[in-house]
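Hello again, I could really use a second opinion on something today. I've been staring at a protein lately and its backbone has me curious. You're getting the sequence in one-letter code plus the fold written as tokens. I'd be grateful if you could look everything over and explain what you see. No rush at all, and the record is pasted right below:
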Amino acid sequence: MSLRTYLIATVIVFVCTAAISVWKRKRGTKAVLKVFFQVAGIFTAIVCFVFLLAKLLAYLGIAQSGFFI
């Protein structure tokens, strides 16, 4: 994966963490870190789900393979 992909993912996670922390009024470092790890985990799960779905569709012959992250 390119550096641009990592930077975009990092910005998305930090923006979501900041937005959720402000929305839920989390002030302490531990509370914000907890939100950060939850956002990072959910983001990772979504990316893995999309990747596995693409692989499954390619395996079943429904879609073309060539999906690269």
The CA atoms of residues 17 and 33 lie 9 Å apart. The mean pLDDT is 89. The longest helix spans residues 29-59. The chain has one domain: 3-59.
